[in-house]
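Agenda item 2: protoporphyrin IX containing FE complex prediction
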Amino acid sequence: MDQPTAPVPPPGCPAHQAGGRVPLYGPEFAADPQAYYTYLRHYGPTAPVEITPGVEATLVTDYASALQLLQDSGSFRKDARRWRDFNEGRIAPDSPVLPVLAHRPNCMYTDGAEHLRLRQSITDSMARVDPMQLSQSVEKISDFLISQFSERGSADLIGSYAKQLPLFVFNELFGCTADIGDRVFFGISGMFDGVNADKAIEVLFQAVGELVALKRRNPGEDVTSWLMQHHTGLSDEEMLHQVALLLGAGAEALVNLIGNTLHRLLTDDRYAHEGGLIDEAMDDTLWENPPMTNFAAHYPVADMEFAGQKLTAGDLMLVSIAAANTGPALSAARKAGSNRAHLAWSAGPHACPSKEPARQIAVTAIENLLNRLPDVELSVPEESLTWRPGPFSRGLVTLPARFTPVKPVSRPARRTPTQAPAREGAAAPRQAEQTGVWSKFLNWLTK
Ligand code: HEM
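Presented output:
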């Protein structure tokens, strides 16, 4: 997007008033974040923003500066216990940004040797996921979800598909029983819907705690058991926070990656006319409409100057992945062919450790949907689509689509590994009364 010659704050932006911080929330921001990023660039590589009323941050909008920050772990740290405004009591205990920003003992909020240790346990355990099995599992789950709406000829591809699929996949990957899976599902969905988030987080941690206890007794071939068996020797508390991080960090980002790529495929004729180029649509999404937008919180260790800006130790710094990826200076490099140099997965020591499986899950989910519903198309005008508010991520509220109704695909014949733990251990007595979505899927497989 071109820089305006004289910077004009986007409509409704309180930066119209002198000294105002630019708000990264509210319906105006959600409707046109790129207008905000264009405006923010006039401050230089960093800009003063507010991410929810009363919570200030310095936003890095320039690609080179973002990369510099992400790679300089000597000057910028991830441990949120350095956050000055929080430590000095300026952040309300019920602030909606705390579930994402507050410190937890997992690899996202640690630095140095502690980070390396926690991260190693994740990378090694995720590396044991068999890509072939993962594809089969995603296809099976995708078939189940499509079978719930394929005869109707219409569906909301966010609520009925993109939002559900990652959670189903995680339940399989992490070896959840039906009972635990239903509560993980409830917890993660509630956390990101922002409705009763405290209750949702409580349910999630309770369910993950039970999962950890179950796998200590009955290890299986799943990521939870592999993390537990890892030579770094994670304690139960570390297990709880690492598993909750994997579920939480993965689910929100994956929903948006699937949803934003589907949005691009259904609204841009270029991809349709060229035979549905899913990989290309996904790369373009990761550049121009990334799932995580203003994220990767870091804190300067000392007072310093950075990209021409004075910073104080403990300032909240966020990287605008969405602005950095779309900066005017970048388009030339992008055209020159460095097609995966975007920051959608972040960069440096905390870059997403799961980008290969995440991409594989998203591509398989989209491919299978387009194969099953080849004439799927948007059923409302593109301009009527709305985006969820919030500073950290970007995803649609709904993606209404229509297609020629098709009969549900038949269930896979073979019993899958997921079903074994569903019948054993602590959750068994509650099996009969299960009505949750994960239980419904397990029933679909066994009937
Ligand atoms: C299977 C799905 C996924 C899992 C399990 C997962 C897991 C994680 C974990 C554990 C971290 C923390 C790494 C660390 O601090 O060392 C992380 C970071 C990150 N992930 Fe993912 N992720 C997934 C999908 C995605 C997707 C689809 C995106 C967006 C395209 C994404 C973007 C990011 C970003 C930007 C960070 C950096 C966060 C920060 O520095 O605060 N992730 N991810």
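Discussion summary: The chain has a mean pLDDT of 88.
Owner for follow-up: CH.
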